[in-house]
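For the sake of transparency, this paper describes our internal protein records without simplification. The remainder of this section carries one protein's record, kept here as part of the documentation:
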Amino acid sequence: MTTTTTESPLISAAELHDALQRQQVLLIDVREPSEYNNAHIPGALLCPLANVKELEPPCSSDTPVVLYCESGRRSRMAYETLASRGFKNLKNLEGGIQRWKQGGYPITGAVSAPISLMRQVQIVAGSLILTGVILGFTVNPGFFFLSGFVGAGLVFAGVTGTCALARLLALLPFNRPQGK
């Protein structure tokens, strides 16, 4: 009986920084485009998690492939997808770009953004839902539709991977990449 291991060999931020200095590394960011535009490791290619299954292996199987996301959860799923397709020499950045930033390593993008775009979406959506509930109980029950509308939008965003609120927030000046 054979067992398939889904252990993700982790690479620390310091090890990745050293590897990027010494050798060719295929660095893949599996977050959403808005997150990538907000901040990413220089030289990283964007391939959102939903598209990872279509990724072609590098020309040289010796080229290390390092996956990362915000915290390491999505890149672990990407790792498992690519490992099941036979990708070799895969690594997963431990702690994601959060750990990379904590280490003081360089990033590019809209570094002037106060917080990540997904956190901004959570704050705005949560505020609208809370406002709808409070106004629904205190002013008019019709305000419950505001909460329902935002909740339905979040479900739609989760199912389709398309978030209109995130796209709207991405247009704000502090969310745009620097130099554009």
Q: What stands out?
A: The beta strands are 10-11, 26-29, 45-46, 65-68, 90-93.
